[in-house]
Amino acid sequence: MPDRTVPLNLVLGRLVRAIRLSDGLTQSDLAEETGLNISAIAWVETGRSMLSFQQERKIETALLEVAAIPFRGAMQQVA
Question: What are the two backbone dihedrals, phi and then psi, of residue 6, each rounded to the nearest 5 degrees?
Fold first, then answer.
């Protein structure tokens, strides 16, 4: 049976890319939000580089902040 495992760095990279795109961000936008350069974002998204803990936290924080903007707006309309 063939090995169908996918390396963790590729899975995480695909996840970062999917969330970034669903939030309507470009790699440049994410780089600006995180203080990382565009090349670093591209390398992470393609699985060619693993994130350091600090880089992971920067990306997570930026993506969560962008995702929360529509939620905050919706909550303000309800209140």
Answer: -115, 135
